[in-house]
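Hi both,

Apologies for the delay on this - the queue was longer than expected. I finally got the zinc ion-bound model through. Below you'll find the protein sequence and the ligand SMILES exactly as submitted, and right after that the structure tokens for the full complex including the ligand.
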Amino acid sequence: MKAAVFHKPNEPLKVEEVENPKIYFHEILVKVAACGVCNTDLHYIDHGVPTFKKPPMILGHETSGIVQDVGAQVKEIKAGDHVLIPPVFSCGHCYNCRIGRENICLNMIMLGNNIDGAYAEYVKVPAKDCISLPDELPLEESCIIADAISTPYHAVKNRAQVRPGDSVVVLGCGGVGINVVQVAVAAGASVTAVDIKDDKLEMAKRLGAKNTINSSKKQDKAVITEIRKLTDGGADICIEAIGNPKTIEMGPTTLRPGGRYVQVGFSHQAAPLNAGRLMFREIEILGSLGCRPVDYPKIIEMIRLKRIQLEPVITHRFKLDDINKAFDLMRKGESLRSIIVM
Ligand SMILES: [Zn+2]
Ligand SMILES: [Zn+2]
């Protein structure tokens, strides 16, 4: 089969012929329909974050496709079914899995990191981790549910616990942040979206944000003042979706006393926090990672009801041969979400 292979950091992926994956009794073989291009891949390619599986390997963890073949023990899924493949597979028996927090499974296996991913014609995955996609959902576009939509959903619903009428500040409207905006709007929040690009802020508006702030030409202090003014003294909730030490430091200061700050963006750098301010104002600080399997059917229902939209946030489509063009666009910050269509 054809696959985009990651050979070493700081080198483009190489599209080449590799062997088809062979499935075990509990696995399924999926013909990839599309795979979303995620910033996480750039951490491996550009920023020296190592993959668990040593290269050469196949990246790609945001996948939808059609089941091609199933292992001997797979009963629930059959060839021809449309499936969504979550980015992370859980073990089902560790402490965190047992208490229903599979998204922080102690033995998690990430597609396109621990094992070969889906920038390829075929991918194999454990049947138990796959999620059925109803036929009325567009198969290719649905790939972004696996991370770009599910990660924001978990952050908004389970970690930030957004309630109708809450004021929510979203710092960063990129591939993940823009969906934090639309999921928070769907949850009934009054959203203030902050970014440095006008087109991303326009999209945030289109998806229901009440206020937008372009922070590119403003001092941090002015941005914080503006947010406090727009939210009548401070937001109930702030969600950081960039992973930039500057915005991480800013986040908790945008909140009212008793407010909640949720970290969704990844950074390997430390960011300072004002402990006195946290203490005096009883600010809550939470991390958010991925999404639990139990939430996927709810997300799919929200998309079916059109409360969460896929089409507007998919800005570019590429063939597998052109995958490096998708990464170039992402490096320039010019795409919201690109998908690779097989
Ligand atoms: Zn991702
Ligand atoms: Zn586990």
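Main takeaway for now: Residues 90-91, 94, 96-97, 105-107 surround zinc ion (ligand 2) (CB under 6 Å).

I'll put the files on the shared drive as well.

H.
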